[in-house]
Amino acid sequence: MLPRAVLVERPTEYRQLLARHGTREQARFFLAQRDLELAEVEERHLRYEETRTRVLAAVPADWRRATVDRAELDRFLFGPDDVVVVLGQDGLVANVAKYLDGQPVVGLDPDPGRNPGLLVPHPPDALADLCADLLAGRDRSEQRTMVQARLDDGQRLLALNEIFLGHRTHQSARYVLDVGDAQERHSSSGLIVTTGTGATGWAASINAARGERLALPAPTDERLAWFVREAWAGPATGASLTAGLLAARDELTATCQLDEGGVVFGDGIEDDRLTLDWAQRVRIGVADRRLRLLV
């Protein structure tokens, strides 16, 4: 069976404004109240639509096609023969990664210069050549390491960048952290476990604020880095076990000590989360899946 090209996208700022305000004039009025112009937002939208048209036209004519919005990813069924075409920001690749199992991902940057381009390294016009390479068996892809969290009731969550464990409102979270032979009871604003891909984002900011920085892993490195945010050393809590690296087969364990509000989520998608109850354990380590990113 020939591949199916699945275009993954998110609404443009213009479409989001229309969805919120109903009409173009209402959107213009809303922006004008904040000394902003609709013309710039509308121009970016039109450029995106032109790019989108070119991208769809570049898909081989005999391939099947589908499109999915970011908000619908958790309800979309990806097939084993899909070629996932992400048109948007780098974060959109992270959003879709957790729902894939080995399908090749083509990251296209619709607006070069506005995105870092780490996960969307290709210009849109490169899609035709990339599809031809795949059909010819020329697989130029990176296997990006992912991170997983497993609850003691069997639930699992995957992420490409990082996993966050803490309170859903980001207030102080209480848990017992076990890493190797070390254990410490924490009250902190959360625990971050990052991959090498995520090491350029949230984790980079946390690491930069530390006095003694960690050497963060590379995107294909089968190691993880972990950080405790704002650990508070109190009568019953410590602040010495706050950062480190996990080898490929190692895990850390966090045991929840919150009556309510405990959550685990990945890549900043708070709506797609696992809920933690008192005394529930979470094991976090390298996932058995990889993101197959065409480079």
TrEMBL record:
Matching SUPFAM superfamilies: NAD kinase/diacylglycerol kinase-like
GO BP, sorted A to Z: NAD+ metabolic process
Listed GO MF terms: NAD+ kinase activity
Gene3D superfamilies, per the entry: Probable inorganic polyphosphate/atp-NAD kinase, domain 2
Domain of life: Bacteria
Alphabetical list of InterPro entries matching this protein: ATP-NAD_kinase_PpnK-typ_C (IPR017437), NAD/diacylglycerol_kinase_sf (IPR016064)
Residue stretches spanning the membrane: none
Official protein name in the record: ATP-NAD kinase
Provenance organism: Paraconexibacter algicola
